[in-house]
Design goal:
Elements (H helix, E strand, L loop, with lengths): L2 E3 L11 E6 L12 H11 L9 E6 H7 L3 E2 L6 H8 L2 E5 L5 E5 L2 E4 L13 E2 L5 H16 L4 E10 L6 E9 L4 E3 L15 E3 H13 L8 E5 L27 H12 L1
Parallel strand pairs: 3-9
Antiparallel strand pairs: 1-2, 2-13, 3-13, 4-8, 5-6, 6-7, 9-10, 11-12
Length: 265
């Protein structure tokens, strides 16, 4: 399956962006799982004919969690205790019996703990350090594929306030600049923008997650080709925290502050 996307303002000489969902066999980690094992799996599932410079690879974060052995048997703990242990901050109970948290710098229900697509019905936790995992995968896949410029996006899905349904977002990235500042650039009427920044990593993750699906699709990998249309800046020195403001920098901090104060008292 291949899907093509184009934008009217892209110069005609640029090829349109193309997406390649990769349907894979079921990833079954060994008794001693590792990220190297995951690299081998990815390379075995992606035809070398699809590998090219300046491509982006979206990887389901669940694969990384499994490769790092981030699985907890339900018999060993309660989910409530596990949420508290995994969270940076517990903000409190929300609808449908869920708990809202800040985990790995993201606003997540139940600390991102997942029970779907778990082989034995166990809890699948987030990687300990998603940014470091993305960087390691970026480095090793570049070596395997002999690439100079490659982007990695670790994806997951989450719900949002005032919206039904889930959308994909970037848990971590490596190999490219995830945030593009438009501050100072003129709008259509030559007025300079004062705040606008484009979050390219989340946009890529949301697009990839639509193709990955949420159930039994078995599409944990998506390739982006012809990325010049996206004006991606590839770099060996990507900042894993560039998308994450501190709590005090966040526009919505005044909403979180009472919950944080209540749960820290």
């Amino acid at each position: 399956m291949e899907s093509n996307m184009s934008q009217a303002n892209i110069p005609e000489h640029l090829e349109p962006l193309s997406l390649h969902p990769i349907k894979t066999s079921i990833y079954r980690p060994s008794e001693t799982p590792s990220l190297q094992e995951l690299v081998d799996f990815i390379c075995s599932q992606i035809s070398h004919s699809l590998v090219r410079e300046k491509m982006l690879l979206a990887i389901s974060t669940k694969l990384v969690s499994l490769a790092e052995g981030r699985v907890m048997h339900k018999s060993t703990t309660s989910k409530t205790r596990l949420i508290a242990a995994e969270s940076d901050q517990v903000l409190g109970p929300i609808g449908y019996g869920s708990i809202l948290t800040i985990t790995r710098g993201h606003l997540l229900v139940a600390a991102g703990i997942d029970e779907s697509n778990s082989m034995n019905g166990d809890y699948i936790l987030y990687p300990e350090s998603p940014g470091e995992s993305a960087r390691w995968l970026w480095n090793e896949l570049r070596k395997q594929w002999q690439l100079q410029e490659l982007g990695i996006v670790l994806t997951d899905s989450r719900t949002s306030p005032l919206r039904f349904g889930t959308t994909g977002f970037c848990v971590a990235h490596s190999g490219f600049r995830a945030l593009e500042s438009m501050v100072g650039q003129p709008d259509l009427f030559q007025r300079p923008l004062t705040m606008t920044k484009i979050n390219k990593a989340d946009a890529l993750a949301a697009t990839a997650t639509i193709l990955m699906g949420e159930a039994a699709e078995a599409i944990p990998l998506v390739l982006f080709h012809n990325t010049a249309a996206l004006k991606i800046t590839f770099t060996e020195n990507s900042n894993p925290d560039e998308l994450k403001p501190t709590l005090h920098e966040d526009m919505y901090y005044p909403l979180f502050e009472p919950l944080l104060a209540q749960n820290n008292s």
